[in-house]
């Protein structure tokens, strides 16, 4: 890979993820750390990124992509992760599926087995509508069209009446600080659900690791399991330190 190709790939990753780590770049591009540090320094001089300890962040604010854009990203990884999530569901379970694109894939792959699904996602409800063996309840409230989710005070009040065995909670960022998302109202719904769940599973592709999005949903304490397609030693150590079951599928 030529130097200019390498630098353009760095910028492309920053555009989609908001931040990159040198260790991640070394693994992806098979070049040395000093070479990548020179790349990041040059791009910073061109005001195309900002250097941080161990990596770089985008110089522009990271805006929330539309749900269609999110569906198009990392599709193969999301398919692997969502299929693995089916193993977390037992017949007769009550489960919560939120508005993440990986989580919606779980709904699409659910067989007609006796489960009770609670959701605040229009896409999930639509995917389950023609599966008569699966009962589903769509939370009421205010439609947030960008994410295709139901949010607001009515949604929060409704969630307080339910308890679920397993909640599948999506996130756009995962760090030592916890999981995070781009929207405050979505974060509030996720927080309310976590409080009503006996078990919390986070299905997340590896592009979200190392990212702090706009608002924190929760720290790592309430999370019982993380399912992903790749996890480096830092993520493995984080999960182990917080008693989180880490499942890597490939």
TrEMBL record:
Answer yes or no on keyword rRNA-binding. Answer: no
| Domain HTH deoR-type, first and last residues per copy | 3-58
Query: Where are the bilayer-spanning segments?
Result: none
Q: Which domain of life is it from?
A: Bacteria
Pfam families documented for this protein: DeoRC, HTH_DeoR
Keyword annotations for this protein, in alphabetical order, are:
DNA-binding, Transcription, Transcription regulation
A single Gene Ontology molecular function, please?
A: DNA binding
* Matching PANTHER family: AGA OPERON TRANSCRIPTIONAL REPRESSOR-RELATED (PTHR30363:SF44), HTH-TYPE TRANSCRIPTIONAL REGULATOR SRLR-RELATED (PTHR30363)
The protein's name is DeoR/GlpR family DNA-binding transcription regulator
UniProt organism field? Pseudonocardia xishanensis
């Amino acid at each position: 890979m030529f130097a200019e190709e390498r630098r353009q790939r760095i910028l492309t990753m920053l555009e989609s993820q908001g931040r990159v780590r040198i260790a991640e770049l070394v693994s992806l591009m098979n070049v040395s750390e000093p070479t990548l540090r020179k790349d990041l320094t040059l791009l910073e001089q061109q005001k195309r990124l900002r250097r941080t300890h161990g990596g770089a962040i985008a110089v522009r604010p990271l805006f929330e992509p539309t749900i269609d854009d999110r569906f198009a990203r990392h599709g193969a990884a999301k398919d692997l992760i969502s299929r693995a999530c089916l193993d977390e569901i037992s017949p007769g379970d009550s489960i919560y599926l939120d508005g993440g694109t990986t989580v919606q894939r779980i709904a699409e792959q659910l067989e007609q087995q006796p489960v009770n699904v609670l959701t605040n996602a229009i896409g999930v409800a639509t995917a389950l509508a023609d599966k008569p063996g699966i009962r589903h309840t769509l939370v009421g409230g205010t439609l947030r069209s960008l994410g295709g989710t139901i949010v607001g005070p009515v949604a929060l009040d409704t969630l307080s009446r339910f308890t679920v065995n397993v909640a599948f909670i999506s996130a756009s960022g995962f760090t030592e600080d916890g999981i995070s998302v781009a929207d405050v109202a979505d974060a509030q719904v996720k927080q309310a659900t976590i409080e009503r769940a006996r078990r919390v599973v986070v299905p997340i592709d590896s592009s979200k690791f190392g990212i702090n999005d706009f608002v924190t949903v929760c720290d790592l304490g309430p999370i019982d399991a993380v399912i992903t397609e790749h996890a480096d030693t830092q993520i493995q150590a984080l999960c182990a330190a917080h008693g989180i079951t880490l499942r890597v599928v490939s």
